[in-house]
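Researcher: Please translate sequence to structure tokens.
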Amino acid sequence: MTVNIKSIRHLLLGWLGLQLAVSPALLAETILPGGDITTSTTYWEEPTASSGSQVDPLRVAADPEKGTVLEVHYNLAGGEYVLFESKNLTTDLNLSSVNTLQFDLLGDGAEQALQVELKDNNGQTYKSVTISTQTNSAWKTVPLKKTDFNYAFGGNPDEDFAWGAMDKMGFTIASKSGGQGSVTVDNLKGVDIMPCEISPTAEELLVDDCENILLNDLGASRGVQNDAKISTTTAVAPISGSYCIEVISKVDQEGGMTESLNSGSYLDVSTYKYMSFYIQPSAAISGDIRVVLVDVTGFSNEKEKSIPGFALKEGTWTRVFLHMSDFAGLDLSQLDRLSFYQPENTTIYLDRVTFNNVTECPESIIPDI
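Model: Translation complete:
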């Protein structure tokens, strides 16, 4: 697998960690050759490193929880990336009957970006998705939907990826923090996960359905940040109702909007596990979307969570779930304001902002870094 430097630079702009809230129901699974590591590295090439990076030979290690696993030790102190990949499969793997590629991941050391790459045998096309190596020294099951993978390089970007003829897969560890670390993987498989269900309406607190640029469902007004332009629009189909919100930042300045959550009394979200919203960029975003919450004490105690623009697909609604634990230190029983900030010269659409308790696995992204 030839590493495309443009792809490496692109992934360094942002990355996201994906996780499931609960164990999903499996309909079927396909074990990838070499995926359930046993006693050898038969199906894997030796890792390679960019100039200035160092990587040890690939090895099978003993893990008390997983048994035998595949382990890579690296040093990115002076380089950009290391790469390890499977050999070309003698018989192409057919993943057309499953919807998710899943594996177990254990990351050690400073956080890096981990790009998962697949190649088909028909057009020699590479598709990839980027996650974090950070697992807080614990095993994490990583489910990647086939729809999460985007065209990376090679082949023809306008042709469909041949999921029925997957020829090779690889992992690129790209430097975010530099330094030494290791990545351990096991149980690579294709699985068919049942579609996720969001909790009933009774479990959701609707903050804004974006039907009106002046008033939300709590009767509170919006504010403009740094002269951004805010309007209702039908330019894109809304998630619900007749409109969604369009926010356009200035060419040379970060911008956004602020939602007042105080309509005579502060908003109590202390019983909710997630904040969620739908977001759609009009074009690729290289920076972060920042979500800021403020409680009764004011802006001196605001807390924020950043979502990498790289994780959002242009022209497509993505439902984002943020753990309320990400806003630790706020009085969640007395929220005053919610703000969205976006990079300069960008247009985003927002719809259906809620606080909720998800009872099944979220169908979209939960940033975990």
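Researcher: Any highlights?
Model: Residues 5-11 form the longest helix (7 residues).
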